[in-house]
Structures are given as C-alpha cells and as structure tokens.
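Fill in residues.
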C-alpha cells in the first residue's frame, strides 16, 4: 500500500504506525490497575529494564554499526566508538541539566506556595491575637493553652503538608525525566525510519522492504515503551486518561522527525550515530540516577529488580526477534 506514495509520505505513514503502537502499549493502563507503592516500584523496575535493553539493541548497537559502515572512522571502523561515545556523553549531560532545571522550577513553585501560606498564617495569627487581647483575666490561662495547642497542631499539619509536597515533587520530577528520556529516545528512531524511506534506491541494501521492516520493528518494540511510561504515572496517582495521554505523547515525536529524516536524508544520515547514542546516554542516566534509586526507597527492591528483569527480557526479545 505504501509503495504508491513518495518517500516523505511513506515516512509519515510509517512513523504514524510506530506512534500508534506506542499509544496501544500505553492504553494497557486502562486494564492494568494499581495505585499502591509496590505496584509503582514494580512498574518503575519494568521501565528501567525496557530502557536498558532499548539502549543497547535499539540505539548503541545500530549506532556503532552505522559508524562502521560510514568508513569515516577508520578503514575497518576501529574508531567507530568515537561518535557513539560523544553522543552518549552528551545525552547524559542533557538529562543532568534537565534534572537541574526541573528541580529549580519545582522548588521555586514550592517556595512561592510556602510564602503565600506563611503570609496567610501570619494574618490569621494577628487577628487571633487582637481577639485574645479583649478576653478578661479570668480566662487568659485557658485561652493561652488553647492557642498554644492550636498553633502546635497547625505547625504539625504544615510540616506534614510540606513533607507530602516534597514527596510529590520528587515523584513528579522522576516521572518527568522518564517521559523526557523515552521521548528523546524516540527522536532518532523517527529519524531512522525517515532516512530509511528517503534513501530507498540509493544503494542495493536500501530497499523499500528494508525500510518497511525497520518501521514495523521499531513500532513493535515501541509497544512496551508506551506501557513503561503510563504504568508508573498511574501508580503514582495520575488518572487513567492522563497516564494514557502522557504514555502515547512520548511517541508523538516520531512522525515529526520521520518526515524531517526523509526530507533531509543526506544531512540526517551522518548524524544518526550521534543521535542514537545521545538517546542511549539520556536513558541510562535516568535509569541509574533516578528510576532505580526511587524503586528501592520503600523496601520493594527485590520486586523492582524482578520488574527490571521482566522489562529487559520483553524488550530484548522484541528487538532481537525483529532484527
């Protein structure tokens, strides 16, 4: 069906399919229910396993192979690790800076809310103090005791609310980084599909069938990635609809970059080793720095570990099985 269209439309339709399979994976959150902490840690472990496997089989291995075939890094590709190492490092630095930015924005918002809360508290205390001054001397001791008890309760409640806000902010930041990492990972995959269709006929190996198979393979291995985003979101308290929305949103970049890849195939192809390794570095940084530590903070480390093993096996099977 696709063969009757031009390369740009082929790339667009191919990446629409990969996005659709990401959304299909994310939609499983409708049927898999769970909001307890154990479920969150298990789903974070699953996401970590998916991301580690995808980092190698979907990103690093193809990046090295592309760099070797380009013959720009030694006659036999002995220096093919250079663009991959550079891209990998840049990906990790990118997420590190994104982490800092998200933390800064989150703490700024938190401080503003706390300042508003303190301001309103001071006004209430001022009003209460003016009322207390009118009470006669026979009831002063009782009033002071009541005010002190009320104030202590207010302080305890404020401390509890601040702790809850800090926990929610930490979960939000980690989930945001998870979404960012998987979205970044989908950018070079969209480029790869676009380049595949745009390069058809340029060499004996660049055929329509190979480009089509690449799109199908990327689409099927995107299926667990959509679930890897939507499950932790739902377990962290997001609604089913919002969890699905953010899960499928991570794959929305693929049609955009698929079209760009087809339009600029001559420019995009040399950049692909860097882009693929960049995505791998971003994913590994998020897994090691945020997802794994978060999944081990509540005594569910073993559950998270087995979730990682399962996610790794699922992703490896899809990547290797689909070539």
């Amino acid at each position: 069906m696709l063969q009757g269209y031009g390369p740009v439309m082929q790339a667009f339709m191919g990446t629409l399919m990969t996005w659709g399979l990401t959304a299909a994976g994310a939609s499983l959150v409708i049927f898999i229910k769970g909001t307890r902490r154990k479920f969150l840690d298990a789903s974070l472990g699953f996401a970590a396993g998916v991301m580690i496997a995808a980092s190698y089989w979907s990103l690093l291995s193809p990046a090295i192979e592309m760099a070797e075939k380009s013959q720009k890094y030694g006659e036999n590709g002995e220096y093919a690790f250079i663009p991959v190492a550079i891209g990998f490092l840049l990906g990790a630095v990118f997420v590190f800076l994104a982490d800092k930015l998200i933390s800064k924005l989150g703490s700024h918002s938190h401080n503003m809310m706390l300042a508003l809360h303190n301001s309103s508290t001071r006004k209430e205390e001022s009003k209460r103090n003016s009322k207390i001054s009118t009470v006669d001397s026979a009831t002063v001791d009782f009033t002071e005791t009541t005010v002190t008890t009320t104030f202590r309760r207010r302080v305890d409640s404020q401390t509890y609310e601040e702790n809850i806000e800090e926990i929610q902010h930490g979960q939000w930041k980690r989930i945001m980084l998870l979404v960012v990492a998987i979205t970044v990972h989908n950018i070079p995959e969209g480029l790869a599909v676009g380049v595949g269709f745009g390069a058809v006929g340029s060499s004996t190996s660049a055929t329509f069938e190979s480009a089509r198979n690449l799109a199908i393979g990327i689409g099927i291995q995107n299926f667990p990635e959509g679930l890897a985003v939507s499950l932790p979101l739902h377990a962290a308290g997001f609604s089913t609809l919002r969890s699905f929305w953010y899960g499928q949103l991570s794959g929305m970049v693929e049609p955009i970059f698929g079209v760009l890849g087809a339009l600029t195939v001559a420019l995009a192809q040399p950049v692909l080793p860097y882009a693929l390794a960049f995505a791998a570095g971003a994913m590994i940084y998020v897994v090691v720095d945020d997802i794994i530590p978060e999944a081990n903070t509540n005594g569910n480390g073993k559950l998270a570990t087995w979730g990682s093993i399962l996610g790794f096996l699922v992703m490896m099977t899809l990547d290797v099985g689909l070539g």
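The radius of gyration is 26 Å.
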